[in-house]
Amino acid sequence: MKVILLSDVYKHGVAGEVVDVKDGFARNWLIPKKLAVQATEGALKQAEALRSQAAARKAALEDRLNELGRQINGVELVFGRRASPTGKLFGSVTTSEIADELLKKTGIDINRRRISQIPLREVGVHEVPVRLGTEVSPMLKVVIVREEEYESYLQQQAEAPQTEAVAEGEEAAAGNVVEAVQEAVENVVEAVTDAVENAVEAVKEAVSGEPAEEEEKQSE
Length: 220
Description:
The chain is α+β, with helices and mostly antiparallel strands. The chain has 5 helices and 8 strands, in the order E-E-H-E-H-H-E-E-H-E-E-E-H.
């Protein structure tokens, strides 16, 4: 059945679009919920204004999805699970759990159906794709650790920025020391060079003065 969407419907279209859907879906869900009307000739004329806005709404939605994709790309989500000695989980990390954890960490609510359905059943780091927009292909970094290691892992992650900051400070200090040593060496070299040049000049003057003194004595 052809229907005109009155509201945005996931995986079917945005308000104003004319789409083909199954008769049962239209009669039992879309039309009773006032999400769509049957695409009769009269309804098509009445929906002209909605159709004219559909492209703009779709573009705005696409921009929003792309922006959300950039915000969540690379976000790390950590789960602690019971696992066998070989790393196999007693269960799995589901898309619903990933969506809930993402909302908790970023405040961004993603429909779990947009998250890859690949089951996560092993301890380790997993790259999980999310279907959002067309400009980016966001990936979530899902880290699964053993239940007993969960707290220690979070603590290590919290301490990591501080460690990096200390390392950067030490590197900067070391760089300052190297610059100071280089400057001191340059000053010493310059002083030695000046001293040598002065000594050479003094020797030249002394050598050039001796013959003049002898000529004066011979003329007397």
